[in-house]
Design brief:
The structure is a homodimer. With about 300 residues, chain A is of the alpha/beta class. The first copy, chain A, has one domain (about 5-295): Aldolase class I (TIM Barrel). Chain A contains 14 helices and ten strands. An eight-stranded parallel sheet of chain A has the order 2-1-10-9-8-5-4-3. Chain A is globular, with a radius of gyration of 18 Å. The N and C termini of chain A lie far apart (about 50 Å). The model of chain A is unreliable at about 1-25 (pLDDT under 50). Chains A and B meet through helix 1, helix 5, helix 7, helix 8 and helix 9 of A and helix 1, helix 5, helix 7, helix 8 and helix 9 of B.
Chain lengths: ~300, ~300
């Protein structure tokens, strides 16, 4: 046995690109832009499985998480610009295999819809390399969320995969975001999240594959960050269950082209119904969110 | 099927405590202190498997990572105050099962040596809950490393496990640590890592189970942080392969009792020899590091 890439290659996932159905080599932003147009949608569906909220018919099957996700994906794939599986929801169930199958299924059945692995990795040197292998080779994700606290060299192993996206936490949607992210830097009125946005727009984006996470619950901060980063795509969680206002998010976050956003919703789509009609209810909730968003877009291409 | 804790309980790991051999209910710091005394050591061995560096006889076995770790653990357990498996090194190999077995083995065969899962988790609300389940229930870790960027509410699901330790990144050992951690906060000369240390010593430590990560490569910062946090234990990676100076680390980081440190070394112990004598070479390297550290301790209890 040799290095991890080789080990994984033996396991059937080529280290050069994600599973079948994707377009390795094409830049993440190219794929995202195509998906914004094709779906006429800025909606990103978060795949955060909670088995206790699954309908019994799904929960009692083998691989219930994969079966649930597959039904959600098939019901929504034409309405979304991305999927975002949240790693912890798989790890707590010892269900990494079902995460692998979910991403593989999206690539195979709905090739072209990018997958953002939401694992908020952050580590140094050779360890960050391992996390890049985990996200891009093992799981075949098109993009991954990362934490900026350890600085630029901790992001570089992800950023150097030019065809993949790297989504850096900037201003998160939770109340505790204030503890560090809002701290005033120096005496010029800049805050820590401004510095992160500036670094993301400059030093970290030399390959055009850096993006940011900005919570929907702080629309003013979203406008400030948009002003710093130009047309950079922003992943915006926090509408739906967390209460972010869709109209404000779109007004403050969109680019001149009426895109630039991946507005992520998880629970209010996945668990729109906990009955046997969960997939059609998820479709209806996604349609509704797409419509709410589109009502405030400057343009739709 | 119901929630993840129940699912895991069915899998055999009780959610109330880690695997056999540990003392659930006892505070992490009590267990760590006992281990400092018993081993006369502040050495923490990082378990970062790199299969390409294993001797062939190990690499060709089934479960090579577990077999390698087991040999290292058996060769060093009386010489260490903790073990620290690094999550990415298992995830990149699709070897979560071998991580589970490694931690279970430490608890069973060398009960009393705490295990710190180095996964640098950081997420919000119900997702942070899932990560706490992952670390403490699924893997049975005694402590976990976490990232402070998302603020206090993102740490709370970990901190509320009173018998477990939570090790917050403060000043890391990599060059890029400067990008955010060294930023001046306000105009009073405080830096971001000072703020993290202050929060860790106050708001985040109401249950006495909060600790910090401080890189060995920045001994001056280590002294500053020690001055802020009193006797709080500090996990100090970066001696060995990363070049941190042991004497400076011990002088600047120890408490008046001559403890307060978990000095972590991985590669220079694990791969002290890549031949069949790797375990005895690891023991010799651990003994040597313990001795180097102990030469600079104020007291040994």
């Amino acid at each position: 046995m040799s290095g991890p890439a080789e080990t994984i290659r033996d396991g059937g996932i080529p280290p050069e690109g994600p599973g079948a159905g994707t377009a390795p080599g094409k830049a993440f932003l190219t794929r995202l832009s195509a998906c914004w147009s094709r779906s006429d949608s800025l909606v990103c569906v978060g795949l955060d499985p909670e088995i206790e909220r699954f309908p019994r018919q799904i929960a009692e099957q083998p691989s219930p998480i994969f079966q649930f996700n597959k039904a959600i994906i098939d019901a929504t794939a034409d309405l979304v610009c991305a999927y975002k599986p949240q790693f912890a929801h798989y790890a707590a169930y010892e269900a990494e295999d079902q995460l692998e199958r979910t991403i593989e299924y999206i690539h195979r059945a709905h090739g072209g819809v990018p997958v953002i692995l939401d694992s908020k990795r952050g580590d140094i040197g050779n360890t960050a390399e391992r996390y890049a292998i985990e996200a891009f080779e093992r799981y075949g994700a098109d993009a991954v969320t990362v934490n900026p606290y350890l600085g630029g060299d901790s992001l570089e192993p992800f950023l150097r995969r030019e065809d993949r996206g790297v989504v850096v936490l900037c201003r998160t949607s939770n109340p505790g975001a204030r503890d560090l992210q809002d701290l005033a830097i120096g005496d010029g009125g800049r805050r820590l999240y401004h510095v992160v946005a500036e670094l993301a727009a400059t030093r970290w984006n030399t390959r055009g594959n850096c993006m940011l996470v900005v919570g929907a619950t702080y629309p003013q901060e979203l406008a400030e960050i948009r002003a710093i980063v130009g047309d950079m795509p922003l992943l915006v969680p926090g509408v739906g269950a967390q209460g972010g206002d869709v109209a404000q998010v779109v007004r403050n976050g969109q680019t001149a082209a009426g895109t630039g956003l991946m507005v992520s919703s998880s629970r209010s789509i996945l668990y729109a119904s906990t009955g046997d009609d969960f997939a059609s209810a998820a479709r209806a909730a996604t349609l509704s969110l797409r419509q709410q968003i589109n009502a405030h877009r400057l343009q739709r291409a």
